[in-house]
Structures are given as C-alpha cells and as structure tokens.
C-alpha cells in the first residue's frame, strides 16, 4: 500500500492523504503501464466538527479501502476550535475534495466516480458537499472561488455518498442540542441569530440531490439519533431523490471499525457506487 500526503492550503489542518492499493507489476499491465484505479473514495471523519477529533479517525477506513482495491483520500479540515467552524470548515471540505484534481493527474486516477464516505459530522459534510451547486444561491462561502473552480474545470463533483450515522438534518440536530450545542458551536451562533448560514449548512436545504445517497445508521447508536438519517431520506424521497436508509447492527463507532459487519456493509455500498 502506498500513501502520500498533500496540502491544499497553508493551515496545518488543510491536507489530505492518499492511500493507493497495491498494483500488479508493470509486466502484467497492458503496454507496461500502471492501470488506472477506478474512482476515488473521499473519507471524511466525524467528531461533531470539534478540533479534538481529527483525520486519525478516518485512517483505518482509508487503509481498509486501499486494501480492497480502492484509492482513498483521507481528508483533514479545520474544525471549530482550530480555525474552523463557519465558514472555514465548509471552504476546506470543498477545497480538499477539489485538490484531488491535481492528485489524480499525478497518480493516474480516474475521477469519473468520486464517492464520499463520511461518519457522523463527516456524513453531514459529505452529503452537504454533494449539494454544492444547489446551495450556491444561499450565500456560498468562498463563492467567487467556487465559480472560478467550476469554470476552470478544477471542481471535483461527488457522484455518490455513503453517510455513516450522519448529521443530515442540521436544524433538528440544533433543536435537540446534540453534543451540547455542537451545531451552534460550528456555525458561530444560533439559527435565530444566523438563519441564512444555518440554512446553507443544512443538507436538507439541497434536497433533492441528483446523486445516490445511502444513509447507513447503527441500530444501537446513542450519539446521533436514527431520526437524522430518516428525516433526510424521507424529504429526499418525497422530492424524487435516490436515497436509502440502511439500518445496521451496532453503535455509533461500529460503523468505523473495519472488523465490524456494520462497516463492511458501508464498504460494500462504496464499491457499488464506484461500479455504477
């Protein structure tokens, strides 16, 4: 397995690490060239957007994906408490995904399929990023730069998402005061004070997406309620979007345990989306 780290900005938390699967010897490849790896999986870690939780949470998943023949991009980003929160966390996620354009050229990766695998707060960011174009009219942070990326062909658009107990209904998460005010902490204040930014950050605002989303949720999850996945899926299906809730055994962290059946189901769904 090969791994290589890349910066996409000057801040210490603006980086991604690429994990590549083992490839057959050049002699067994057509024309002696390294075969292109089909698609890339963007791994986005959780931790309620707080700085004490980092990309080390996503590393075991990225390693496992690479061991199963997939290129994985373990994405770090600024979180609330280390320069992140509104709007920088959101800017970083888009910039970090777009950094794949240059990385893919260097390693001969195929970006026709780019699937995000996001856990908890990372599930929120993954589904949110898949709706980047639909959210443009709501006051996009870094809007001019996003337009420039699209015009220059630099933007990398997600073609599918596997959310692992994701926070997909931000307004509900805020109302429930999940993790002691984590949403307000991310957004720099309450929805009453900043309604526009809260709306922009909520994946519910981009329904329906035109890419498939699997909302996987642990049946014993006491950290993020099942209603987060169910509410999003219900709204998406009502609008005609291809969203499915997949209920699996285990708690919140079984979904990021490579030895757990719940995680293996997530991996299978990622493989399915890459093959579509």
Order of helices and strands: EEEHEHHEHHEHHHEHEH
Helix content: 25-40%
With strands numbered from the N-terminus, the spatial order across the biggest sheet is: 1-2-4-3-5-6-7-8
Here the CATH topology equals Rossmann fold
Low-confidence stretches: 24-36
CATH class: Alpha Beta
Global shape:
globular
Number of strands: 8
Provide a concise account of the structure shown:
This protein is of the alpha/beta class. It is built from 10 helices and 8 strands. The protein has one domain (2-27, 34-275): Rossmann fold (3-Layer(aba) Sandwich), CATH 3.40.50.
Tags for this model:
single chain, 276 residues, alpha/beta, Rossmann fold, 8-stranded mixed β-sheet, 8 strands
Structure description:
This protein has 276 residues and is an alpha/beta fold. The protein has a single domain, classed as Alpha/Beta hydrolase fold, catalytic domain (Rossmann fold). Helices cover 34% and strands 19% of the residues. It has helices at residues 59-67, 88-98, 100-107, 121-130, 143-151, 170-175, 182-187, 195-201, 227-238, 261-275, and strands at residues 2-7, 15-20, 37-44, 71-75, 109-119, 160-164, 213-218, 243-248. Strands 1-2-4-3-5-6-7-8 form an eight-stranded mixed sheet, sandwiched between helices. Strand 7, helix 9 (227-238) and strand 8 form a beta-alpha-beta unit. Residues 24-36 have low confidence and may be disordered.
């Amino acid at each position: 397995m090969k791994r290589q780290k890349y910066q996409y900005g000057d801040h210490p938390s603006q980086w991604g690490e690429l994990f590549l699967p083992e490839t057959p010897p050049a002699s067994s490849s057509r024309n002696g060239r390294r075969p292109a790896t089909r698609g890339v999986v963007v791994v986005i870690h959780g931790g309620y957007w707080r700085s004490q939780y980092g990309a080390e949470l996503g590393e075991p998943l990225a390693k496992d994906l690479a061991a199963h023949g997939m290129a994985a991009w373990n994405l770090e980003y600024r979180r609330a408490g280390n320069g992140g929160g509104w709007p920088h966390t959101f800017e970083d996620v888009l910039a970090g995904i777009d950094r794949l354009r240059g990385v893919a050229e260097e390693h001969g990766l195929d970006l026709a399929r780019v699937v995000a695998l996001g856990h908890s707060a990372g599930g929120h960011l993954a589904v949110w990023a898949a709706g980047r174009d639909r959210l443009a009219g709501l006051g996009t942070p870094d809007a001019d730069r996003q337009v420039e990326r699209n015009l220059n062909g630099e933007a990398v658009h997600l073609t599918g998402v596997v959310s692992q107990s994701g926070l997909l209904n931000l307004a509900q998460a805020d109302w429930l005061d999940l993790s002691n005010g984590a949403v307000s902490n991310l957004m720099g204040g309450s929805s009453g004070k900043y309604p526009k930014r809260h709306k922009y950050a909520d994946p519910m605002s981009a329904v329906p997406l035109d890419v498939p989303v699997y909302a996987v949720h642990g049946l014993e999850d006491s950290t993020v309620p099942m209603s987060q996945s169910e509410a999003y899926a219900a709204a998406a299906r009502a609008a005609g979007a291809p969203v499915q809730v997949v209920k699996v055994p285990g708690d919140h962290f079984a979904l990021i345990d490579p030895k757990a059946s719940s995680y293996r189901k997530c991996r299978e769904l990622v493989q399915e989306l890459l093959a579509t």
